[in-house]
Amino acid sequence: MPVVRPSDAVVHEMHGARFVSYAAPSTGTRELCAWRGEIPAGTRAPAHTVSREEIFHLLSGELLITLDGTAHRVTAGDTVVVHPGATLAVENPGDGTAVSWVTTSHGLEATLADGTRIVPPWAN
């Protein structure tokens, strides 16, 4: 389907964040996936290592993004490039919900520090 309406988006929740999937194999994509991330104030997602490159663009709010042990304060309009094999942690130290747009290739997996493997449905 070439046009995905907001009513067609699929909502997933994990680690206190909300993932609103617009582009995924379930909506007809062949290579790319894209979603809106909603990270409430006070949310601290666990560090995870990603298997595919992600482009993370912050639409509103402020986040603390840690890539391979280096923390970066990210504000609305900033874009973060996360390379395959990088370890990523996301935290919202602010008072409001931060909203992001994320794009990756189909097949993304994430591995937590304890070895747990996550295959997010919004990217598969």
Architecture blueprint of SSEs:
Layout: E1 10-14, E2 17-23, E3 32-39, E4 48-50, E5 54-60, E6 62-67, E7 70-75, E8 79-82, E9 87-91, E10 98-105, E11 110-112, E12 117-118
Overview of the structural elements:
The chain is mainly beta and 124 residues long. It is built from no helices and twelve strands. It has strands spanning 10-14, 17-23, 32-39, 48-50, 54-60, 62-67, 70-75, 79-82, 87-91, 98-105, 110-112, 117-118. The strands form two sheets. The chain has a six-stranded antiparallel sheet, with no helix packed on it. The protein has a six-stranded antiparallel sheet with strand order 7-6-9-4-11-12, with no helix packed on it.
Summary?
The protein is an all-beta fold. It is built from no helices and twelve strands.
Q: What are the salient characteristics of this protein?
A:
six-stranded antiparallel sheet, 124 residues, Jelly Rolls, 52% strand, mainly beta, 12 strands, single chain
- CATH-defined fold name: Jelly Rolls
CATH class: Mainly Beta
Percent in helix: under 10%
Low-confidence spans: none
Shape: globular
CATH architecture call: Sandwich
Task: Provide the β-strand percentage band.
Answer: over 45%
User: How do the strands line up in the largest sheet?
Assistant: 1-2-3-10-5-8
**What summary fits the major beta sheet?**
6 strands, antiparallel
Total of DSSP H or I helical runs spanning 4+ residues: 0
Question: What's the rounded overall pLDDT mean?
Answer: 96
